[in-house]
Amino acid sequence: MTNFRLYALLFIIQPFLALIVAFYNKRWELFRVVLWLYAGYYGFTIAVGAESQGSDIVRYIAEMQSLHNKSFDTLSSYWSYYQNSGEIDFLRSFLAISVSRFTESQNVLLLIYGLIFGYFYSGNTFLVLKYLRLNTFYNKLLFFSFLLIMPLWTMGGFRFNTSVHMFTYGVLLYFFEGNRKALIYCFLTPLVHFSFLIPVSLLVGFSFFKKMNIRFFFLFFALSFFAPSFSSNTIQTYINSVGNQTFQERTDSYVDENKVSNYRESSNTVFSGKRNWYADLYTKGYRWVIFGYLLLFYFKRKSLTLKNKENILFKLSLLIFGFTNLIDDIPSGKRFFLIAELIATALILVVLYRHSIFRFIKIYKLVSLPLVLLFLIVSIRAGLLLTSVEGVFANPLLVLFMNGEYTDLNSLLRAITG
Question: Where does the chain cross the membrane (predicted)?
Fold first, then answer.
């Protein structure tokens, strides 16, 4: 209790420092609580500037503020608004209406987003820290890569990104602690983002086939790189057959043939000079690192002697990666790679913790190190756009007396460097 009070006091004085101290002292239970609270504080102080215009977070804020002046006298009026909004994702609409009843402050809305996102983010982080020992420099780098696959500054895409951590949390709780009830988190994700009907369906299917030989999953994974992607018309036909009109209208924006064509054209011109080379390479490079480990684990599986639960995590990673390869031509289809990357990185950390002595693993660590470092550096650099100066250097008491507009670290860096 004394330690908790000390960390609580330190958090009030300087939240970011409390986070660092808890991690340095390896008090993982306390670190989880501090990280969760810091996620809420981060949301409250997130820098929503010019770079965010047109993003989901701006739309969420605008809707909540517009609802502030509307009257919702009964539960039926809540439900009527939800039905007429054309929105499928229940949680975000519920939060927009609920928060708008007592404030129009974007900071309060983002505080709540941060606490919800942070609960699952801190939970995934805690599970990795609790059951694994970061006993080498390379393992520490991979752990920080795990944190940066879907970091705090991505909470602006609240629906999908929260669902990613929520789904992963259910899977990792089951993997590390054998808690079958934890899979309920996975099944609740479609209430946060409707597209998670896809990974939930994969998980249900996987539960029937998980005892199949690893060769089946690896073959599916390997062939997915060469097989043609699902056409948008095929997906749209399936959606129309199982969903109601509201669901069809909501999903049309994702699978409309014109949008898919535009998406493919833009994907073919990403190196046209409009983007820096590392802007595309850093995420692809880290994914290649993961693919390399999966290949290594498969072809050296007799030497590694993976345990039953490790094999399950391995098979699930191959399944999600393979399926995402088949839908990556659909707008937003590539985002499902994030689930597989989180699960696969947790698997890699487990295997490296147990089997770092093998020469082939030591060699691959050296080969993959540059791409891991690139991923870490560019991810942190991207986070400067939404991370505020106040979020790092101020405290909860101080920001209460500010006007709610915060300066991002990227602007501070530019001012310092000229």
Answer: 6-24, 31-50, 108-129, 141-162, 182-209, 216-239, 285-300, 312-330, 336-354, 366-386
